[in-house]
């Protein structure tokens, strides 16, 4: 193999699995270290830089970082990254002076953001302080979009939501509530705005067209029902509730039902466990509340007696799973009727753009999704951008934020007459963390503790009303342990081949045998010759140039490195060093600074 | 030296031996030697050897004297027996221990100072007795613990960090051991575990005195230009004459080999070692030939490594003395100690 090119910003970025997996690339190890040092405000701001809504996301993020966390490969459970974010938010103190401020001067450009959800707010967050005049049009009487209407209050208290949204609005955003955009054409024709961003989400819950669907008013569509609950249009539900579908919306529906008076809530899954769409932790939280999940039940029809919903008929399914873990379509092996008073359909959601005319240059694909460039977030019509669920179908909040940042860069470049394809590059800065003979600027001690368990409000207490936040947040003792579980993957092992005397000290001391000195070869061959098996091809091999004494190479399998720094501590020549890789991500605001410098120069 | 202990986390797919242990289970305390010390690599090679041989930790006794080398038994197999003796007296203490309990596997770790200066008399007599042990000399040519004076193994002309080059003849433990009739004599290098680990495994299983002289550079006091025991010098003049492969009991020798170049040797437990000649002019079964070869190559400035002399016929200490098979430590007192009447019988013979 050729020597690894560590100057490519992506190389070390990938080693920081959590940051790489995060759509917004939050610098997780950095903020966890800040929490460990008690610098909660700084940890919050570090989060805010990339993900804009730390307090919200610290409660309800889909946390793609956690399944990616290296700790989950070294032992069973990843670091509780998401809930540590909440720790930073809960303890942040007064950081108001560091939050975005209204611009000193307007730049004369006007931007329309449609929908006041996370995507539009992220765009506003980036562009308003730069001097753009930002108007947000929201159809509903409240801000937040899905975060307010679809996420129940017992998971995300409205105060938390309001506070972080207000921060953005306070920079001088023109917010127009109860102001649905009925015609995109009219908006564009008005030429009132220099650019338009669509962040309207995926607002249409999927229906289930089976017999009896329209014969009762006790059959609800999940996201609509949650919205009605959020706006207090619905305050009760029957005693026996069936939830159809087993995604995260289903989890919110079943848990909300319990708080509106349901006594017996069943989640009906068509497939077996392991094929559920809901995140493991959301399933756990629902099951803790005694929600029953019935597998292999495929909905067949609604049972209506005397115009009243009394139950639902299901086909009992059996599935074959092949060696690759793929499941077949299943065979029907029986039928059963399960009695109920209400049914909530939570089987997914679709995009819907009845307000966008199809002849104004915005192209739609066969699923009625707009055709949007994944890099620039612009659609076929110049100056119209999409983000969040509106762009590529339902994803999650953190993806919407990431889209918002990208769209902000594009909108800025578009409005300044720059090429939007020409994106500012990512960068990486490496800095040694050595402080002394055996001293590093980070805690390299390996904390063997298992993942801390989030304390919850007592099961009896929490159903009293919809507003009781179930998760209490980590205690100080839990935080102290959990932060130490982070492996500091951003503190990279950096190797300088010409300094190596091949004493083997690093190989001998590595606790997970991830280092090998051997003859060079092709990757497939090298992987078979390492000191420990390296079957995880998603994790790179870090290969050095030829070593001075024997012309062999140093190979590091990045997969399980715990970043303890012992290789560097044991290295007599400093060939190994522990260096922090700070990934530089471009934001719209950097562009304005560079533009300003250019002009000044 | 490190300030944090080696993390107690193991590769989730780490190999396990017949006892279900990983190599991590054979580690000891954190090393307090200098970063880059060859001795730490020898320690790692010992860990790997006993792990691969499925040694039960409580069946191992690790013996040492004084010096950087003699600290190292603390760094492997924490759960074994051990004795850290007076300077240079490790062979006598091991003799006593082996006399009392022949059931344990003995590994002595010594250095060029401990074995070739203060303890040279002990060293040679352990060889004469053919004590059944693996005797490792971590040989770096200097007294590291007292800041780098030349030891008895320093070569003529080798330069110190400061001061004049060495003028005195070195003692070569390998030639010394062969001349004294040691039955397993090997030399290796801390930087070559592929060679070192099989040599240590063979030495541990060899029924008799097995010497492994390991060039183990002192990274602090003897790893500079002009030193003949530095990493760079050793690599440059490394002359590898034989290889051994260890074949555990009941495992067939599957590889085909050329009879002239490969010598299979059966060990008492049914395991075998395959002795492969890298240089076919070398005959490790002839003392005279080995001597000649070693001397010639030494004069040419080369460091000859591999299994250099091997004699499977020589009897080890207990066999030579005709002792019972049961370890003395397990014999009841009345059979170990003759009754007082018996003493009178013996004495009466001399009257």
Label this structure with key terms.
heterodimer, A: 601 residues, alpha/beta, Fumarate Reductase Iron-sulfur Protein, Chain B, domain 2, FAD/NAD(P)-binding domain, 4 domains, 23 helices, 23 strands, 31% helix, disordered C terminus, B: 351 residues, Rossmann fold, eight-stranded mixed β-sheet, three-stranded antiparallel β-sheet, 12 helices, 19% strand
Give a written overview of the molecule.
The complex is a heterodimer of chains A (about 600) and B (about 350). Chain A has about 600 residues and is of the alpha/beta class. Chain A folds into 4 domains: about 130 residues, Alpha-helical ferredoxin (Fumarate Reductase Iron-sulfur Protein, Chain B, domain 2); about 140 residues, FAD/NAD(P)-binding domain (3-Layer(bba) Sandwich), CATH 3.50.50.60; about 140 residues, FAD/NAD(P)-binding domain (3-Layer(bba) Sandwich); about 90 residues, Alpha-Beta Plaits. Chain A has 23 helices and 23 strands. In chain A, strands 3-2-1-4-15 form a 5-stranded parallel beta sheet, with helices on one face. In chain A, a hairpin with a 2-residue loop joins strand 10 and strand 11. In chain A, helix 3 packs across helix 8. Chain A is globular. The two termini of chain A are about 45 Å apart. The C terminus of chain A is likely disordered. Chain B has about 350 residues and is of the alpha/beta class. Chain B has a single domain, classed as 3-Layer(aba) Sandwich (Rossmann fold). In chain B, the strands form 3 sheets. An 8-stranded mixed beta sheet of chain B has the order 2-1-3-4-8-7-13-9, with helices on both faces. A 3-stranded antiparallel beta sheet of chain B has the order 10-12-11. In chain B, helix 2 links the parallel strand 1 and strand 2. Chain B is globular. The model of chain B has no long low-confidence stretch (mean pLDDT about 90). Chains A and B meet through helix 20 and helix 22 of A and helix 1 and helix 8 of B.
């Amino acid at each position: 193999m050729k020597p690894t090119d560590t100057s490519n910003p992506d190389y070390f970025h990938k080693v920081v699995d959590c940051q790489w997996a995060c759509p917004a690339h939050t610098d997780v190890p950095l903020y966890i270290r800040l929490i460990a040092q008690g610098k909660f405000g700084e940890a919050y701001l570090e989060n805010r830089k990339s993900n804009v809504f730390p307090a919200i996301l610290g409660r309800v993020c889909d946390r793609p970082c956690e399944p990616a966390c290296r700790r989950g490969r070294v032992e069973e459970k990843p670091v509780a990254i998401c809930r540590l974010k909440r720790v930073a938010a809960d303890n942040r103190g007064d950081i108001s002076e560091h939050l975005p401020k209204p611009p000193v001067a307007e730049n004369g450009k006007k931007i329309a953001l449609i929908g006041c959800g996370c995507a539009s707010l992220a765009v506003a967050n980036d562009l308003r302080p730069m001097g753009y005049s930002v108007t947000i049009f929201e159809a509903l009487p409240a801000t937040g979009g899905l975060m307010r209407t679809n996420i129940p209050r017992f998971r995300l208290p409205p105060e938390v939501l309001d506070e972080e949204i207000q921060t953005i609005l306070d920079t001088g955003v023109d917010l127009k509530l109860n102001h649905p955009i009925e015609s995109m054409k009219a908006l564009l024709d008005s030429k009132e705005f220099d650019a338009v961003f669509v962040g309207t989400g995926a607002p249409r819950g999927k229906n289930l067209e089976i017999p009896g669907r329209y014969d009762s008013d006790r059959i609800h569509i999940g996201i609509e029902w949650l919205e009605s609950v959020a706006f207090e249009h619905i305050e009760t539900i029957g005693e026996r509730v069936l939830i159809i579908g087993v995604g995260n919306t289903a989890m919110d529906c079943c848990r909300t039902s319990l708080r509106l008076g349901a006594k017996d809530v069943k989640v009906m899954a068509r497939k077996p466990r392991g094929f559920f769409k809901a995140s493991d932790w959301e399933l756990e939280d629902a099951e803790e509340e005694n929600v029953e999940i019935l597998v292999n039940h495929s909905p067949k029809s609604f049972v209506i007696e005397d115009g009243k919903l009394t139950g639902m008929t299901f086909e009992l399914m059996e599935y074959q799973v092949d060696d690759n873990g793929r499941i077949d379509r299943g065979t029907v092996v029986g039928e059963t009727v399960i009695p109920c008073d209400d049914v909530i359909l939570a089987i997914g959601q679709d995009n819907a753009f009845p307000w966008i005319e199809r002849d104004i240059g915005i192209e739609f694909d066969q699923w009625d999704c707009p055709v949007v460039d994944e890099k620039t977030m612009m659609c076929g019509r110049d100056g119209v951008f999409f983000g969040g669920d509106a762009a590529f179908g339902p994803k999650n909040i953190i993806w919407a934020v990431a889209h918002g940042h990208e769209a902000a860069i594009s909108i800025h470049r578009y409005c300044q007459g720059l090429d939007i394809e020409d994106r500012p590059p990512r960068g990486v800065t490496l800095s040694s963390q050595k402080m002394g003979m055996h001293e590093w600027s980070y805690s390299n001690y390996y904390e063997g503790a298992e993942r801390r368990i989030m304390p919850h409000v007592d099961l009896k207490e929490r159903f009293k009303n919809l507003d009781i936040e179930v998760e209490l947040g980590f205690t100080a003792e839990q935080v102290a342990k959990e932060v130490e579980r982070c492996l500091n993957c951003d503190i990279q092992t950096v190797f300088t081949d010409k300094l190596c005397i091949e004493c083997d000290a690093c190989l001998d001391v590595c606790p997970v045998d991830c280092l090998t000195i051997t003859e060079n070869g092709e990757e497939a061959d090298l992987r078979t010759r390492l000191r420990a098996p390296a079957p995880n091809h998603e994790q790179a091999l870090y290969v050095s140039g030829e070593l001075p004494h024997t012309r062999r190479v140093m190979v590091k399998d990045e997969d399980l490195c715990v970043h303890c720094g012992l290789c560097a501590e044991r290295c007599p020549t400093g060939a190994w060093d522990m260096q922090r890789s700070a990934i530089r991500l471009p934001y719209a605001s950097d562009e304005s600074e560079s533009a300003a410098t250019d002009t000044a120069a | 030296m490190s300030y944090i202990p080696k993390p107690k986390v193991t590769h989730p797919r780490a190999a396990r031996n017949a006892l279900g242990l990983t190599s991590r289970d054979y580690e000891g305390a954190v090393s307090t030697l200098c970063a880059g010390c060859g001795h730490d690599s020898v320690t790692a090679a010992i860990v790997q050897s006993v792990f691969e041989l499925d040694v039960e930790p409580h069946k191992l006794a690790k013996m040492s004297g004084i010096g950087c080398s003699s600290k190292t038994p603390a760094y492997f197999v924490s759960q074994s027996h051990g004795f850290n003796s007076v300077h240079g007296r490790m062979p006598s203490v091991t003799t006593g221990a082996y006399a009392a309990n022949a059931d344990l596997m003995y590994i002595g770790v010594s250095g060029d100072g401990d074995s070739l200066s203060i303890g040279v008399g002990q060293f040679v007599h352990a060889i004469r007795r053919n004590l059944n042990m693996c005797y490792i000399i971590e040989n770096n040519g200097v007294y590291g613990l007292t800041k780098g004076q030349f030891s008895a193994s320093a070569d003529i002309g080798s330069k110190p960090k400061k001061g004049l080059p060495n003028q005195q003849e070195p003692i070569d433990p390998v030639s010394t051991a062969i001349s004294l009739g040691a039955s397993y004599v090997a030399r290796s290098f801390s930087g070559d575990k592929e060679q070192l680990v099989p040599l240590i495994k063979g030495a541990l299983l060899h029924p008799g005195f097995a010497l492994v002289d390991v060039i183990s550079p002192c990274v602090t006091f003897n790893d500079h230009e002009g030193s003949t025991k530095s990493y760079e010098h050793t690599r440059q003049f490394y002359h590898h004459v034989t290889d051994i492969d260890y074949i555990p009991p009941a495992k067939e020798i599957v590889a085909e080999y050329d009879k002239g170049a490969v010598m299979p040797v059966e060990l008492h437990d049914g395991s075998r070692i395959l002795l492969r000649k890298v240089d076919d002019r070398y005959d490790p079964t002839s003392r005279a030939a080995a001597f000649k070869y070693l001397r010639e190559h030494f004069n040419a400035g080369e460091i000859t490594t591999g299994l250099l002399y091997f004699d499977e016929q020589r009897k080890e200490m207990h066999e030579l003395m005709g002792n019972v098979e049961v370890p003395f430590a397990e014999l009841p007192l009345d059979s170990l100690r003759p009754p007082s009447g018996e003493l009178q019988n013996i004495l009466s013979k001399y009257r």
